[in-house]
Structure formats: structure tokens, C-alpha cells
Amino acid sequence: MKKKIKHIEECRKLFEIEIPSEEVNKRIEECYKKIEKVAKVPGYRPGKIPKDLLEKHYGDHANKEAAEDLIGDAYQKAIEESGFIPLGFPQISDVKLDDKKELSFKAEFNIRPKIELKQYKGLKLNKKVIEVKEEDVDRSTKTLQESTAKFKNTEARPVQIGDYIICDSEVFIDGKSIAKKRENIWMPIEEKSYIPNLSAGLVGTAIGDEKEIETTMPQDFQNKEYANKRAIFKIKIKEIKEKILSEIDDAFAKDAGYNNLAELRDSLRALLRNQTERQIRQDLENQIMEQLLGSSKFNVPTSLVERQTQHLFEEEKDKLLKQGLKEDDIKNKEKEVKDKMRPWAVKQIKNMFILDEIAHKEGINVSKEEVDEALEAIARQYNKSKEEIEKHYEKNDLISSLRSDIRHSKILEFLIKEAKIE
Questions:
Q1: Spatial separation of the C-alpha atoms in residues 354 and 117, rounded to whole Å
Q2: Which of 118, 27, 107 is nearest to 67 (CA)?
């Protein structure tokens, strides 16, 4: 076997491999021996077919099977000889099996970057101090009150602040609709609306009214193309809903599943503490990763970056479609959005490699019991059996991703325990 190595980039390599005819013919003969046992040619029993007929009927199959086997073996041998640690499967191209039975092909693949970790134990971290105050509990109670509000149809009066309307809405900028028309949406009529003057412009309207409201899009509007631009909202009022809030008392608490208001507030307080602890933990993890990224200089495969960038873009695209943006408008902005997301994709991939390198050095792995515990926790969260969740994860090839998440969580837990926290 002859092998050439080309360095496409630091983390992407190319093998050009040639396999001599002697080795190819030997493998083809082995394939014919397997084929002749099951081959079917009219007038002959399996195992009794003349060689020339076997080659005529099954020559292409034998050549293909032999080439596939040889490519796999040769690639694996080349990897072992080179000492590379490949990531994923290679991209095989330019496969040629000539008349002389000489086989050649190319194999392009990613390799793990070389990471020289400096200090990762004893990192200096600043731990936030966040207290849960009574006004925080008050806000959570008010939020629960809002979420359990009832809505009564109101036909005898016009729209007023505090109402909700059900309407059809379409937005125009420079005379062009910027998103598909949204029908039967719920819209709050607020003292201060996110879209300036929108709520104020609807106060006083009645069921059946169609109104055009001129406004300026907010500076922080998600689609930056339309930020700060003059816009016209065309609204058709279909229903007016008056919001009715329950009194915050023991009866309110009982409706929420508690014995009294004090017990409800205790539960909300505990929930806020848990959220605060997660926020503090997330901040510590962010500090760790920023320090490790700052002290570890290495490149990652471009193809992985592009794949992760595409994944992030698809997530963002789904959000924008749900918000009513047109697919053509999103497509026109695809390059711009991906350019903004690419640095974040690089950061995510580097984080993964750094954590994996630490896990390797420290012998941090994930047991089957830990995977089972995670599946049970997910099952409880979705009120399903562990068997149902496990079946779903196996069917969608998510077990390895779950295992990776558990492993990374264990690595970060290890790093926090080893850190110097102030």
C-alpha cells in the first residue's frame, strides 16, 4: 500500500492511497468464494457455477465488495501508521479500480486538535451573592396571579388599557409587508407597549373595527433591518377580553394546590432560591470556561465549525418562523446571521474539546447507572416512564449526547471543587 498525506489545515488531513493489484485480486477472489456458495445462475447449482459465468453475473458485485473492504482496511492502517486521532468518519472520494485491478482513493478527515492545557485546577472564581428578598416573592406571587387570570368577553364597551384583544395583524414598512399576516392572535393593551403607540392607538376601538396605526419600530427589534423604522400596523379587532384577577389570599393559594397563602409563598421562595443557585452555578461555569479558553490557544476543524453554525442558524430560523417572519426574508439574511453566529460556534466547539481533554487527564467517565438516573429524571419531568424516555432517546440516537452532557457536567463540578472561590 502506498500512502501520501496532505495537510489541508491544522485539523483536517487527506490521505491519497494506492493498493496494488496483487492485494486487490486476492480480495476479489475471497469475495467470489463467498458469492459462489449462494450465487444463482440458471442451469447450475450453488457452488458448481463455472468461474467465467460467476464473473459475468457477479463481477461488479465482487469488485464493489472487495473495494469497500480494502478501503476500510487501508484507511484504518493509514490512521494507525500516522498516529492521527480522527474525529468521525472520513469523506471517501475519487475511488478508482482500473483494468489492472489497482485500487486508489482519497480519504479526507478531521483530527483532534492538540490542546496544551495550562492551569485548570485552582482557578480563581468570584461567587455572586444573590439574596431572595420578600419583594422577589411578591413579584412571583403577582406573576402567578397574572398567569391564572380569567378573561371575560366584553362587547358593550370599547377597548381600554388592561384588556386583551383577539385580532388579525399585519405590519408594513415602506409599503411592504414584513411578515405573513397573523390571524386570531392575543394582544395585550398596555400602559407602555413594546411597540410605541400601538396599545394607545387601539384604545377606544370596538369589535369589527379595522385600524391602521403608524409607529416607529423599537431600537432593539429582533430583526435589525427594521429597527427604528417607521411602520404601519393594520389591526382588525375580533374580540375584546377583560382580564379578571383573583384576590391574592388563602382561597387563591388553595386553587394553586396549597393549604394557605403562607405555604404558597414558602414554595415560591424555595423555587426562587433554586433558580438563584442555578444562576450562581452558571456564572461560576462561565468564569471557568472563559479562563480556560483564554489560556488554551488551538484551532478546531472548519467543517465542525460550519456544522455547528448551521445548527445554531436552524434553531434561530425556527424561532423567527414562529414569530411570523417569512422564510424568504430569513433566507436573504442567512449569510449575515451565520457570520454573527460563527464565533459562538467556535467557542462551543473549543469548550467541548477542552472539557474532554480534562476528562481524559482526570479519568472522568460516565457510568450506565448515571445515564439511567438521568433518564429517570427526564421521565419524571415529562410524567412518563423511564422505558418510554429511553426508547425515545435510543430511537433518535440521543443517548451519546446525554452521556456527553453528563460527562461535561461532572467535569465542571470537578473544576468548581478544585477552584479557589471568593
A1: 8
A2: 27
Q: Are 196 and 229 in contact (CB under 8 A)?
A: no
**What span, in angstroms and rounded, lies between the C-alpha atoms of 86 and 5?**
14
Residue among 167, 201, 200, 163 at smallest CA distance from 185: 167
For residue 171, with 0-12 CB atoms within 10 Å meaning exposed, 13-18 middle and 19 or more buried, which class applies?
Answer: buried
Helix/strand/coil for 337:
helix
Tell me the pLDDT tens digit for each residue of 290-321: 999 999 889 999 999 999 999 999 999 988 88
Mean pLDDT of the chain: 92
* Rounded distance between C-alpha atoms, residue 197 and residue 189, angstroms: 10
Q: How far is residue 152's CA from residue 145's CA, in Å, rounded to a whole number?
A: 16
Indicate the pLDDT class of residue 34, thresholds 50, 70 and 90.
confident
User: Pairing state of beta strands 230-244 and 150-153?
Assistant: antiparallel
Burial 319-349 (b: 16+ CB within 10 A, else e): ebeeeebeeeebeebeeebbeebbeebbebb
* Crossing angle of helices 334-362 and 261-295, rounded to 10°: 90
- Domains (ranges, CATH) in the chain? 2-111 (3.30.70.1050), 150-244 (3.10.50.40), 252-421 (1.10.3120.10)
Identify the DSSP state of 44.
Answer: B
Position 45 pLDDT exceeds 80? no
Q: What is the pLDDT of residues 87-109, one digit of tens each?
A: 989 999 999 998 888 999 999 99
